[in-house]
Amino acid sequence: MEEEWKKKKQKSFWLGVIAGVCVVSAIVLGCAIGGFLWFKDNSSKEFLGKRESTKLRVIQAMISRYYYKDVTEEDMADGLYKGLVASTDDPYSQYFTPKEYEQLKEETSGNYAGIGALLGRPAGTTNTLVTKVYDNSPAQEAGLKKNDEIVSADGYRSEHFETLSDFVNHIRGEESSDVTIVYKRAGKEKSVIIKRKNIEIPSVLYYMLDQKKGIGYIEIMEFTGNTQKEFEHALADLKRQGLKAVVYDVRMNPGGLVDQVTGILDDLLPKGTTVSMKDKKGREVTYSSDDRTQEKIPCVVLTSGQSASAAEIFAGAIRDFKYGTLIGTKTFGKGIVQQTMPLSDGSAVKLTTETYYTPSGDCIHKKGIKPDLELQYKFKGDKERADLSVDTYDYKNDNQIQKGMEVLKKELSR
Fold it and tell me: Which of 22, 254, 255, 272 is most exposed by smallest CB count within 10 Å?
């Protein structure tokens, strides 16, 4: 499927899918002794015996003596921990260094200290472009605009970083600290000093599609720590504007936090199980909705192959409760749950711990969810207004949104 918005956000989507449906645990396990891993519980022997420890020391000595570059003991230890988790052969399980774990918590919280601009990279380039400037942000105050090219941050040039996230680390920093940004506009470079501040990254975008008919639109871009609160605000504001039916859009949603998606489903659905999870021993955890805040508003949900994890929990519950109509293409098919377990030194391990099931008992892993109305995405409007993440998106030239409005108008006319 050659969707334009898919190409633009494919990289961020994959980062999001790797984060996936995640539960943060306070469990603290393991420690490092003498540079090597030691792990013991009541039911097992030491993970590394004398022979394994000796072999590791030999390999460590070989790297120190023969490898053509210097490698620190810390880097070797981190490589050992990462390799141990990689033995699961699971792309969603991962070891995080203390620095990486802090970054993960920042991303999933929806808050960070930075300049308040959304950045992106055109495919196959190391150019960093401003794709959106948030209102009342330091970036807006400094005069940055959409399509400006960020050349460097504190002297670190964008072109020297293979990944956007590595470059962004130099733009983010301590609250109230300064960062010198060099940017290019119309071929001319300019330099500006911007004071970082805490930024709340919005995960929900909403507006009215048809004021006369009362049809609203809510896009959930990701399920971060603030999403339920943002969703409830969006729904309440649209109601004040005369909302009678709504289009929910999770086409670009790679997943996120379980408590946020189940909290939103609790806001919407009648009493019942919204999702259940089972571990390898058959132990089950269920999330349910009550009928205290049930919304009786006709809805459709737009899906795509990039709707994953928590987005599929959302779509699956809407489908199984027969609460709304799914429109678009089959979802990604990530039906497993990760648990992030902090370690005592500030690092963490994320492991896939459970499989989840929709209310009807369907396991969608590697299968996805087929929509009620299959419709490939087509956009025939101005490419400058083809970015779903901004409120200037030209929804009138989005065939899936238009189909959703058509379905809702029929529903309202009954």
Answer: 272
Which parts of 249-378 fold into alpha helices (H)?
A: 258-268, 310-320
DSSP assigned state of 163: S
Q: Classify residue 31 as left (phi > 0), alpha (psi -120 to 50) or beta.
A: beta
Q: What is the pLDDT of residues 257-304, one digit of tens each?
A: 999 999 999 999 999 999 999 999 999 999 999 988 899 999 999 999
Q: Which residues contact 228 (CB under 8 A, 6 or more apart)?
A: 259, 260, 263, 264, 267
User: Encoding tokens for residue 178?
Assistant: 């300064």
Overall residue count recorded for the chain in this entry: 414
Q: Where does 1-110+202-414 sit in CATH, by number?
A: 3.90.226.10
Q: Quote the CA–CA distance of 374 and 371 in Å, as a whole number.
A: 6
Residue 131 CB coordination number (10 Å): 18
Which residue is associated with the tokens 């039906």? 335
DSSP 158: G
Annotated domain spans of the chain: 1-110+202-414, 113-200
